Structure formats: C-alpha cells, structure tokens
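Summary of Year 1 activities. Much of the first year was spent building the evaluation harness for sequence design. The harness presents a backbone, in tokenized form, and records the residue chosen at every position. We chose the following record to illustrate the format because it has been used consistently in internal testing since the harness was completed.
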C-alpha cells in the first residue's frame, strides 16, 4: 500500500513539473516574442526557419552591394550627361572657328577647346568612394592623363581590364559599367578625345577648313557618346527592377519567417492562464486526497 501511495505522489510531482515547464515555455515566448527560442521548441520548423533566414541574409547583402553599384551607375550617367554638354560647347566653338566671313581669333578658341579636353579627361577620371568608375578592373588608378603631344591629346595610365561582375540579389549578373577607353577613346570617328584634340589643333593652325572638318567629326563623336549614355540609362532601369524584386521577395520571406518563429501572443497568454488554472486545481485536488497509512488499517 505504501508503495502505491508513493507512486501516486511521484506521478503527481512529475505531472506538475511538466505543467510548470509548459507554462514557463509559454511565458518565455511572450517575453521574447519568439515561439522558436531553442531547436527543441519545434525541430520540424527549424529547418524552414534557417533556410528562410539564409535566403533573407543573402538578399539583404546583395541589395547592399547593388546599392553601391547603383551609386556608381548614377554618377556615371550624370558624368556622361556633362560630357555630352562639353561636346555641345565644342561644336559651338568649332562653328565659330569655321567662319571665314570675318576675322576669327582661332588661337583663343583653341585655348577654350583645350580646357574642354582637360575637363573631359576629368570626367573620364570620375572617382566614387575611392574607385575610378571608368577604369574597369584597375579602379584604383585614374585611367587617363592629358598629353597634348599625343595623337588623341591623352595618354592611358594603365592597360584596361574587365571590371568586377555585379549580381542582383537573386544572383543574376548585371551588365558591367563601361571603361574609359570604350566611352571616350573609341577608335575612328567615335573617339571623343580625338575629336576634341583634332579641333584644338585645327584652331591652333588657324585653319577654317580644318576646323570645319573637325567640327563635323564632333557630331559623330557626340552621337556615339549618347549611345554610351543610353547604356547607363538602361542599367539604371535594371537596377531599379532588381531592387524592387528583392524587396518583394524579402517581404515574403519575412512574413513566412514571422509565421514560424514569432509568438502567437493571444494563444500564449491563454496557455499561461489555462496552465496556471490547471496547476492550481491539481494542487487543490491533491491536498484534499485522503492520507492513509498502514497504521490506519491496524487501528
């Protein structure tokens, strides 16, 4: 009989311990606002939670990288807009120098064109946060320096190599930014530097016909430069679309993650209340249970 009584008592204490643990777990979920605090809380959902967190972290990092690239692309687009305006000014100066109807101070115009060439080199050497954005893979060094003795009026400072590959948050590669040799120093009539330098030399030589020829070449170079500007406009659109898609995906993952790991406050509060009530009732029932021993049967 004593053994049965002890067994009942042990079972009661074990039940109370389990009830207390459930109540404590519900209270902890309320305090932390997280339903999954340890792996044992829900081993089945743990894998899904870790997968979602990994996807979310990868997307956030990718979006941050894309943000830095977007700054460079936006700066490049603005810089090329300025470059187009410089060529427009050069065309105006060339038109003035082409006139043979009245005396023209072509030497003075040549000085102005030289200034435009210097400014164009400055645009080619645009720097964003320590990176020369038109230098490709050699982005720690300015790509060009002015050298009026050179055919194009400039010298490259290093060999151009492809730039880094930039991916969107989903891992898809985006078109790379253009290098200065492609944008400003293209071969033939597309070369921006050469067109400016040819105009400068024609003006210095006081040649109306040479100036006229050089001015016509500027129109071709300007059309080419506008094509490069369009590349960055398209790239801006792709970046905007990629960021928008990433934001939507991240919202979906955050919602799913919240459903897995966040506490259902109402359900947890009910659990705490019901658990407390059940324990109090169990203690009351246990305290009212008759206490008998072997001596009671011997009386």
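For this record, the design step produced the sequence shown next.
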């Amino acid at each position: 009989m004593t053994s049965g009584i002890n067994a009942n008592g042990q079972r009661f204490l074990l039940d109370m311990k389990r009830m207390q643990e459930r109540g404590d777990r519900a209270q902890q979920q309320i305090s932390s606002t997280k339903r999954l605090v340890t792996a044992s809380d829900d081993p089945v959902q743990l894998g899904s939670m870790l997968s979602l967190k990994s996807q979310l972290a990868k997307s956030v990092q990718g979006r941050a990288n894309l943000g830095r690239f977007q700054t460079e692309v936006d700066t490049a687009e603005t810089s090329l807009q300025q470059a187009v305006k410089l060529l427009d000014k050069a065309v105006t100066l060339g038109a003035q120098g082409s006139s043979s109807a009245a005396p023209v101070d072509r030497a003075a115009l040549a000085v102005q064109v030289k200034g435009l060439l210097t400014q164009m080199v400055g645009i080619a050497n645009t720097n964003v946060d320590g990176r020369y954005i038109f230098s490709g893979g050699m982005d720690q060094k300015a790509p060009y320096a002015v050298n009026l003795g050179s055919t194009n009026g400039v010298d490259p400072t290093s060999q151009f190599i492809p730039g880094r590959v930039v991916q969107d948050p989903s891992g898809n590669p985006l078109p790379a930014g253009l290098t200065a040799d492609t944008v400003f120093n293209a071969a033939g009539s597309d070369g921006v530097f050469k067109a400016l330098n040819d105009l400068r030399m024609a003006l210095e030589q006081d040649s109306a016909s040479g100036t006229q020829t050089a001015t016509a070449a500027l129109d071709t170079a300007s059309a080419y430069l506008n094509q490069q500007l369009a590349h960055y406009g398209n790239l801006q659109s792709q970046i905007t679309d990629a960021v928008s898609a990433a934001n939507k995906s991240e919202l979906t993952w955050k919602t799913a993650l919240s459903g897995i790991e966040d506490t259902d406050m109402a359900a947890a509060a009910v659990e705490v209340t019901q658990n407390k009530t059940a324990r109090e009732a169990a203690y009351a029932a246990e305290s009212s249970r008759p206490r008998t021993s072997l001596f009671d049967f011997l009386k």
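The chain has eight helices and four strands. Quantitative recovery figures across the full test set are reported in Table 2.
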